[in-house]
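testing teh design pipeline on a random one, pls ignore if ur not involved
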């Protein structure tokens, strides 16, 4: 018995010494294109380059279980993290999530804000967080202290998301359109002042 193989179509066939077909299998790709080989090579490279820590996960309940987490932000090196949940608290970590500290603004504790989003600069020092039907909160010291900002005259915008440039200077926050209030605001001075950028009837989510 011998095997015959068609390199173009990926088809192999076993035949006996008289040439009678015994078994045939057809690959599901055309070898001539090299698509399979390229994809398989990419897969191997990704497996080889992926850090070991990214392949395993550990649940952390040190701050309590059952919290409705809404958003998390990270510094570029992954050491500094900041997370918010709807129960009114902001937690930060400086050791890649091994330990967490409650950094909720003292002024915000009285109203138990429904935090919906948080963002971080690449070095993790500048943070900005928004709350549903609340304000924008800015920190320039990794969450140790916070400053409340109220864009325009509306203090009850249903904020849904906020994002930051790598240095934390430029910010953009979006929310739901309510009572004619602009639902997209931007800042070019780390959140000190804000400019409306949308007056359309939209519900921005991210």
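output:
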């Amino acid at each position: 018995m011998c095997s015959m193989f068609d390199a173009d179509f990926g088809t192999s066939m076993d035949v006996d010494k008289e040439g009678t077909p015994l078994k045939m299998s057809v690959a599901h790709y055309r070898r001539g294109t090299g698509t399979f080989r390229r994809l398989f090579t990419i897969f191997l490279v990704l497996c080889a380059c992926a850090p070991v820590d990214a392949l395993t996960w550990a649940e952390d309940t040190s701050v309590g279980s059952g919290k409705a987490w809404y958003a998390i932000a990270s510094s570029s090196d992954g050491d500094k993290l900041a997370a918010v949940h709807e129960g009114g608290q902001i937690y930060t970590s400086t050791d890649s999530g091994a330990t967490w500290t409650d950094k909720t603004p003292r002024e915000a504790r009285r109203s138990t804000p429904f935090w919906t989003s948080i963002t971080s600069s690449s070095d993790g020092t500048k943070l900005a967080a928004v709350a549903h039907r609340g304000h924008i909160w800015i920190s320039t010291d990794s969450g140790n202290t916070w400053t409340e900002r109220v864009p325009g005259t509306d203090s009850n915008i249903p904020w849904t998301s906020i994002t930051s440039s790598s240095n934390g200077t430029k910010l953009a926050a979006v929310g739901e359109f309510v009572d004619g209030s602009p639902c997209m605001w931007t800042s070019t001075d780390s959140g000190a002042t804000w400019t409306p950028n949308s007056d359309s009837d939209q519900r921005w989510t991210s």
